[in-house]
Design brief:
This protein is of the alpha+beta class and 110 residues long. It contains 3 helices and 2 strands; from the N terminus they run H-E-E-H-H. Strands 1-2 form a two-stranded antiparallel sheet. Helix 2 crosses helix 3. The longest helix has 14 residues. The N and C termini lie far apart (64 Å).
Length: 110
């Protein structure tokens, strides 16, 4: 397998079977908790996607049912390789704080 190949598709048949199993087992998005309309097709933002609990980029197994769950495409894209909490904050519109967003210290300014 080359360095550029997608580990999710290296065994396409197994991944397709896993996707069917995840779609049959779950009905709600693991990130936002809302129902997933399984009739919608990609690239619709609310279409069904299989997400890995431990991202493949961080060593997760893309062919393990225990590592996979159902999400909306939009939620999965927001999550990327970060935490569910990060994606939930993005959905709520609460961006992660940056160094510039932190309040200034007021010690000794009186």
């Amino acid at each position: 397998m080359s360095a550029r190949s997608n580990p999710r598709r290296s065994n396409g048949h197994r991944r397709d079977m896993l996707r069917r199993r995840v779609l049959a087992a779950y009905d709600v998005c693991a990130i936002c908790g809302k129902p997933v309309d399984k009739t919608l097709r990609s690239p619709h933002p609310m279409s069904a996607e299989v997400d890995e609990l431990i991202p493949v980029s961080r060593g997760g197994d893309p062919l393990s049912f225990a590592n996979c769950r159902l999400t909306h495409r939009r939620c999965n894209r927001l999550k990327s390789d970060k935490s569910d909490e990060y994606a939930r904050r993005q959905l709520e519109g609460k961006a992660e704080p940056t160094a510039r967003a932190l309040p200034f210290a007021t010690v000794g300014l009186d």
